[in-house]
């Protein structure tokens, strides 16, 4: 029988979670992409390195390979470039800096050259660092990490201060609602102490985390009802549907994002309203 690594008391929360925001603000990235460094003693893992920017990657290297630290792996929460573009470069630089092999993980390895599927959990020398949770919806390959102590790194499944985009065919509103239901059950069970999103600010209490999840569910259910009502009233084109629900103010990337979300709602209704 294989000996298992010891599982720590989640209340101990000895794993550090360090956040560094990339300088890539925009309509889709808010104030920029949040990269996270998990540190357990000397061992380190990097989550969502973000864009391939020399100064940003240098800071992640300083946090995870400096001062005799041991980089163990680089993991991305999903395929999008604002989270994953710097992952391969960071891994090579960490290996050169530390002189050790560094794992590269992605739920869809084909989206990130050299990557392998992630383990079900990140384990350090002394036990559990984080559980890896599959949460498809924003993308088919979206995952989250539940770090020791209940700190949930959500990638783009939940954002701080905004709703996420679901762009078919890779994104699925049906899958997203199921993933939110999983997160709600975890929060009600007391397993989530805080939310650390891919963009925006952290949500730092269990009560606020549950409220954010329930708000995301309510927002999607409201949008589904708006689309259902518009279709019943004879709104048949996507352009008119955007004007009906969002008004005439949206332009550029925001209008594009609205069209993706409405396509996702239409696909969801096609599956569920038969």
Protein architecture, described:
This protein is of the alpha/beta class and 274 residues long. It has a domain at 16-206: Ribonuclease Z/Hydroxyacylglutathione hydrolase-like (Metallo-beta-lactamase, Chain A). The protein has helices at residues 54-65, 81-84, 87-98, 173-188, 206-232, 238-246, 252-272; strands at residues 16-21, 34-40, 43-47, 70-75, 103-105, 121-124, 127-134, 143-147, 151-155, 194-197. A 5-stranded mixed β-sheet has the order 1-2-3-4-5, covered by helices on one side. Strands 6-7-8-9-10 form a 5-stranded mixed β-sheet. A hairpin with a 3-residue loop joins strand 8 (143-147) and strand 9.
Key descriptive features of the protein:
alpha/beta, 274 residues, 5-stranded mixed sheet, 19% strand, single chain, Metallo-beta-lactamase, Chain A, 10 strands, 7 helices
CATH architecture annotation name of the domain at 16-206: 4-Layer Sandwich
Remind me, CATH topology of the domain at 16-206? Metallo-beta-lactamase, Chain A
Query: Portion of residues in helices?
Result: 25-40%
- Given the C-alpha coordinates, what overall shape results? globular
Instruction: Compute the CA-based radius of gyration.
Output: 19 Å
What class do helices, strands and sheet pairing give? alpha/beta
Low-pLDDT residue spans: 1-11
Q: In order across it, which strands form the biggest sheet?
A: 1-2-3-4-5
What is the count of helical runs?
Answer: 7
Order of helical and strand elements: EEEHEHHEEEEEHEHHH
The total strand number stands at: 10
């Amino acid at each position: 029988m294989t000996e298992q690594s010891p599982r720590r008391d989640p209340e101990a929360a000895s794993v550090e979670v360090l956040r560094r925001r990339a300088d890539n603000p925009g309509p889709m990235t808010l104030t920029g992409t949040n990269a996270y460094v998990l540190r357990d003693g000397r061992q380190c893992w990097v989550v969502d390195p973000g864009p391939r920017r020399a100064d940003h990657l240098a800071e992640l290297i300083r946090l995870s390979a400096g001062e005799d630290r041991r980089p163990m792996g680089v993991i991305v929460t999903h395929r999008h470039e604002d989270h994953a573009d710097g992952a391969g470069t960071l891994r090579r630089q960490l290996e050169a800096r530390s002189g050790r092999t560094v794992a590269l993980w992605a739920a869809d390895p084909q989206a990130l050259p050299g990557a392998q599927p992630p383990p079900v959990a990140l384990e350090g020398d002394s036990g559990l660092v984080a559980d890896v949770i599959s949460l498809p919806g924003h993308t088919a390959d979206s995952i989250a990490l539940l770090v020791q102590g209940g700190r949930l790194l959500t990638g783009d499944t939940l954002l701080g201060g905004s709703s996420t985009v679901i762009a078919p065919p890779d994104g699925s509103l049906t899958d997203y609602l199921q993933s939110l239901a999983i997160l709600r059950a975890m929060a009600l069970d007391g397993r989530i102490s805080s939310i650390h999103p891919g963009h925006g600010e952290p949500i730092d209490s269990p009560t606020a985390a549950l409220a954010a999840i329930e708000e995301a569910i309510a927002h999607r259910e409201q949008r589904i009802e708006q689309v259902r009502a518009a279709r019943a009233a004879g709104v048949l084109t996507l352009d008119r549907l955007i004007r009906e629900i969002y008004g005439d103010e949206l332009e550029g990337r925001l209008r594009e994002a609205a069209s993706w979300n409405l396509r996702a709602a239409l696909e969801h209704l096609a599956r569920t309203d038969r």
